[in-house]
Amino acid sequence: MHLEIITPDKKLFEGEATIVTFPGSDGSFQVMNNHAPLISLLGAGVVEYKTNEQRLKINITGGVVEVLKNKVIVLADGVKE
Q: 81 in a domain, yes or no?
């Protein structure tokens, strides 16, 4: 599935991912290929995603995620270092 992680300042990641774990406002959840469409609020925490080559993490301050037709767009409020 295609994943984009965007903040107001810049695009943090764009590429293919096999699984993504999100810090949902009511707890963490995962999205895999062919997931049902959804829109969800994200709380502060770690977005973890796996590509064919590696497993990566980005610590966000909150945001929104949309999943539709194997395209996942994360609009993050900001990033914690």
A: no
- In 10 A of CB 74, how many CB atoms? 23
Which pLDDT tens digit goes with each residue over 7-58? 999 999 999 999 999 999 889 999 999 999 999 999 999 999 999 889 999 9
Contact call for residues 23 and 60 (beta carbons, < 8 A):
yes
Cα angle at 77 between 76 and 81, to 5 degrees? 85
Could you list the residue range(s) of the whole structural domain that residue 70 is in? 2-76
**Whole-prediction pTM value?**
0.92
CA distance 81 to 76: 14
Q: Is residue 40 part of a domain?
A: yes
Inside any domain, residue 72: yes
